[in-house]
Design a protein that fits this description.
It is a single chain. The longest helix has 18 residues. This protein is α+β, with helices and mostly antiparallel strands and 900 residues long. It folds into five domains: 202 residues, no CATH class; 113 residues, Alpha-Beta Plaits (2-Layer Sandwich); 147 residues, no CATH class; 186 residues, D-amino Acid Aminotransferase, Chain A, domain 1 (2-Layer Sandwich); 116 residues, OB fold (Dihydrolipoamide Acetyltransferase, E2P) (Beta Barrel), CATH 2.40.50. It contains 19 helices and 44 strands. The protein has an eight-stranded antiparallel β-barrel. Its cofactor is Mn(2+). InterPro entries: DNA_ligase_ATP-dep_C, DNA_ligase_ATP-dep_cent, LigD_ligase_dom, LigD_PE_domain, LigD_pol_dom, MtLigD_Pol-like, NA-bd_OB-fold, NHEJ_LigD.
């Protein structure tokens, strides 16, 4: 490696690539360095270019090693060398410029960036646009208690099904948990077509072996089974590329394997150096998947570091990305489909829709009904496109290629706030390649007693999931639209007149039912379901219990259900319901959701740029007042109005409408908030007189007297809050905590001295981003260390099967140990193996703990002699004396149990 200009560099493919800190360890467990990563990438460059080339590459980077934080990166940074080939892909709300892998020099640059994982879609680029594919991938994802050998047995069954379908298949151990199976298609197809083929295989296998296989995304039914995930073929998803490294505890690789290996047993993931040795002896086991291997990538002798350096392809100077001819496209196939799946939602104007559009595939009984023909058009966006002029509106007309949707993600939902003729919210659920859409005038309810009107509108393309912007005046749905919340959902039922889903969003989460009340007017009712238990949610086809409506719902819990059964399109309302609505209409508007800080280190932050506040161990809330009454809402959008009565003078003290941000706490005798006490008061809705009352700490102001301050800098908002402080401090149990002195390390030390949970650092110029997690606010928690004695351990499950799951800890007492909890995070696989080696000789038949441990701790427990002293970090103890959020630190070789 040559040094140039004081900076280390490497010559690759005629390019000088800056390469610094080659000795930096990226995998602690094996000591694998950044230089080793470069060596591996250059050795397999021809193969990576074969199987990941001519595709946009999303990188997952670990700049400080796999024991530290990672992040996905799609956009090519501005400092990237100009010789890195790239492609600009237009998304609904932005254009993303991705790198395109076409030379070893680009791989060397990836290594410099510590981009350990390379994720790509299955389709290739055609003339710089998303095109078609000649391969499918099926991801075998083992559930809890399923090992790699069992997963391999499923892989062999999938291979047989693919063979019966006339498809050649190839196996790749993913380097993470499971196995990826690839199959070559004779004809280039769209992303939807590839998904259809994979789905048919997955569902066929699930029917044949329901005891071992599931093709359903519900996580609750995956234990003991292998999830056959066909959805990775979606145009909106990516899969880690064959031969890519993985950012795990050890430097495993997405490694091609022979079918003989999968049947022999004892299957394990491979390290990078093992992969290189196998390439020397066995060559490329994927040869044939993408046609003839390029640049020697498929030679029987494999691709060694030397051969890669000799046979690397010339890097392209052009920035457009894909070549005119893709390795997986053919001119005889016609025009490629742009963007993969053409789906996802948008909104309509806010009045009654023009036509009766039941959700797509409404006649289907289940949640998983989908395409069956390889090139079938499952849904039509004709109505959506008919209403819009693409020359005038910025709305998307295609599906978005969202390349960092990780393995196992469910379908997406999005709620968009639409300031059209009337303000309303658009709920959109990804279903059959589109976003089935409803206009909900008052947004989704958060309590079972609330029912909201939802008007079914036309299906929208998937690209609408991220759409934000202004639809021009005169166009359909004219007005400004923003994303209010988005996430994934799980489907329990999808019928013509009833849909049940479990939403997982930042603001909205829970089990919801949509019931159609009038087909003529496209009117539905959306209700937050009374029964939110997971067991109930997974009733449906997989649980003999009735999922909805329950007996309680029929007897009075669901007016929507009753009106549906009676055939009456009008929802019946009781006097109590009408009076409650009247009462709610007299209350202030619901406050906006709070801004969420990002976890990070604050010690080096300057007080010139950052302000520092205490982090309180409580419930985050926002408050809305109208000068007479107050409303409180949790960070998840749930009502906390039962506490509003606890601060009766708050609205009156301010004397004007306002919206505030703060934290609910219960201070202990020393004034330090006690979370366990707050949890008890919350359960009692503030009525537990045996513990202290709930206090409100206010630390931000979002609106005063109709003036929205969220676009103001933090410093300006703090000035306004200081003006309100005398009025707030006059209210019983309401206070405005002061700002801590900086810099960050001093503020953290002060928080530690007071015994607080930690601190929050806020950029002084930061705007308030309601409902979003932002890096302009950082939080750092203070952790306590405790030394304890190991009294037992529990075996690992799932990915840790066969290794250490958790340690059972205690403190020495006169005749044994007093249980203080367990620790199951913070140690690497290598450390776990070393701990087991020390604990095995210490096995005993009986528990060394004085009391009976909780059932979840003693289940499968293996008891040991209490001799090993360890140190753990945690966030204090619960009221029961159990560690909170404990993390492993190390063994204390210098101490014996008697020293504690």
């Amino acid at each position: 490696m040559a040094s140039k200009g004081g900076k280390e560099s490497v010559e690759v493919d005629g390019r000088t690539v800056r390469f610094t800190h080659p000795d930096k360890v990226l995998y602690d467990a094996t000591g694998t360095t950044k230089g080793d990563v470069l060596e591996y990438y250059l050795a397999v460059a021809p193969l990576l270019m074969t199987y990941a080339g001519q595709r946009p590459v999303t990188r997952k980077r670990w700049p400080d090693g796999t024991e530290d934080k990672s992040f996905f990166e799609k956009n090519l940074p501005s400092h990237a060398p100009d010789w890195v080939s790239r492609v600009a892909i237009e998304h609904s709300s932005r254009t993303v410029t991705y790198p395109v892998l076409d030379s070893p020099a680009t791989l060397a640059w990836f290594a410099q960036q510590a981009a350990l994982e390379l994720h790509v879609p299955q389709w290739t680029l055609t003339d710089g646009e998303p095109g078609r594919t000649r391969r499918i991938v099926i991801d075998l994802d083992p559930g809890q208690d399923v090992d790699l050998d069992t997963t391999a047995k499923v892989a062999l069954r999938v291979r047989d099904l693919l063979t019966e379908a006339g498809l050649d298949s190839y196996a790749v151990t993913s380097g993470s948990k499971g196995i990826h199976l690839y199959a070559r298609l004779d004809k280039a197809v769209t992303a939807k077509g590839a998904s259809a083929v994979a789905k048919q295989i997955a569902q066929s296998l699930a029917k044949q072996t329901p005891d071992l296989v599931t093709a359903t995304m519900k996580r609750s039914i995956r234990d003991g089974k292998v999830f056959v995930d066909w959805s990775q073929n979606s145009g909106a998803k990516t899969t880690v590329a064959p031969y890519s490294l993985r950012g795990r505890a050890e430097p495993w690789v997405a490694a091609p394997r022979s079918w003989e290996e999968l049947g022999d047993g004892g299957l394990k993931h491979l390290h990078w150096d093992e992969m290189l040795k196998r390439l020397e002896s066995e060559g490329d086991l994927l040869e044939g998947l993408e046609g003839p291997a390029k640049k020697g990538g498929g030679s029987k002798k494999g691709a060694t570091k030397k051969s890669a350096a000799r046979k690397s392809s010339a890097s392209r100077e052009k920035k457009s990305g894909g070549s005119k001819k893709s390795s997986s496209s053919s001119s005889e196939d016609g025009d490629p489909e742009r963007g993969g799946s053409d789906s996802s939602g948008a909104d309509s104007a806010g009045g009654q829709p023009d036509s009766d559009n039941a959700p797509r595939a409404a006649a289907e009984e289940g949640c998983d009904a989908g395409p069956t023909d390889a090139d079938a058009v499952v849904t039509s966006l004709e109505e959506y496109r008919r209403k819009r002029d693409r020359r005038k509106t910025p709305e998307p007309f295609h599906g978005e290629v969202e390349t960092d949707r990780s393995d196992g993600d469910g379908p997406i939902f999005v709620i968009q706030e639409h300031h059209a003729r009337h303000l309303h919210y658009d709920l959109r659920l990804e279903h059959h390649g589109v976003l089935a859409s409803w206009a909900v005038p008052k947004n989704l309810p958060t309590e079972p007693k609330d029912r909201r009107l939802a008007v079914n509108t036309e299906d929208h393309p998937l690209g609408y999931q991220t759409f934000e912007g202004t639809i021009p005046k005169g166009e359909y749905g004219a007005g400004h639209m923003t994303v209010w919340d988005r996430g994934t959902y799980e489907c329990e039922k999808w019928k013509t007149d009833e849909i049940i889903v479990w939403l997982h969003g930042e603001k909205v989460s829970g089990r919801y039912v949509l019931v159609r009340t009038s087909a003529e007017k496209n009117q539905w009712i959306v209700q937050y379901m009374k029964d939110q238990s997971p067991d109930s949610f997974y009733g449906g086809r997989d649980n003999p219990k009735s999922s909805y409506p329950s007996d309680d719902d029929r007897s009075g819990g669901s007016d929507a259900s009753r009106s549906r059964e009676s055939g009456d399109s009008t929802t019946h309302r009781s006097d109590a319901g009408r009076s409650r609505d009247s009462e709610m209409s007299d209350r202030p508007d619901a406050p906006p959701l709070p801004m969420i800080p990002t976890a990070g280190s604050v010690t080096s932050l300057s007080e010139d740029t950052w302000a520092f506040e205490g982090k309180w161990d409580g419930y985050r809330v926002t408050v809305s007042t109208d000068g007479v009454r107050s409303r409180l809402m949790s960070r998840n959008g749930n009502s906390m109005d039962w506490l509003a009565d606890g601060f009766p003078g708050l609205a009156e003290a301010l004397g004007k409408p306002a919206k505030l941000d703060g934290e609910l706490v219960v201070p202990g005798p020393d004034g330090v908030p006690e979370f366990s006490a707050l949890a008890k008061q919350a359960a009692a809705e503030g009525g537990d007189s045996s513990i202290g009352p709930v206090h409100l700490f206010v630390f931000d102001v979002l609106e005063v007297d109709g003036v929205d301050l969220r676009r103001e800098r933090w410093e300006r908002r703090r000035e306004v809050l200081d003006l309100l402080t005398p009025a707030l401090d006059a209210v019983d149990r309401v206070q405005v905590p002061g700002v801590l002195d900086g810099p960050g390390d001093r503020a953290l030390a002060e928080a530690e001295e007071f015994g607080w949970e930690g601190i929050v650092a806020k950029r002084r110029d930061s705007h308030y981003q309601s409902g979003k997690r932002a890096k302009t606010w950082l939080k750092e928690k203070l952790l306590t260390t405790t030394e304890a004695v190991v009294g037992g351990w529990r075996p690992g499950k799932g990915g840790r099967s066969g290794s250490l799951g958790s340690l059972l800890l205690g403190l020495p007492a006169q005749t044994g140990l007093t249980y203080i909890g367990r620790v199951g995070t913070g140690f690497s696989d290598r450390q776990g193996k070393a701990l087991l080696e020390e604990l095995e000789p210490l096995r005993r038949r009986s528990s060394p703990f004085l009391e009976d441990l909780p059932s979840d701790a003693r289940r499968d427990a293996i008891w040991v002699l209490p001799k090993l002293v360890v140190e753990v970090r945690h966030q204090g103890f619960t009221e029961e004396g159990v560690l909170r959020q404990s993390t492993w630190r190390d063994i204390r070789r210098d101490k014996l149990p008697g020293d504690l």
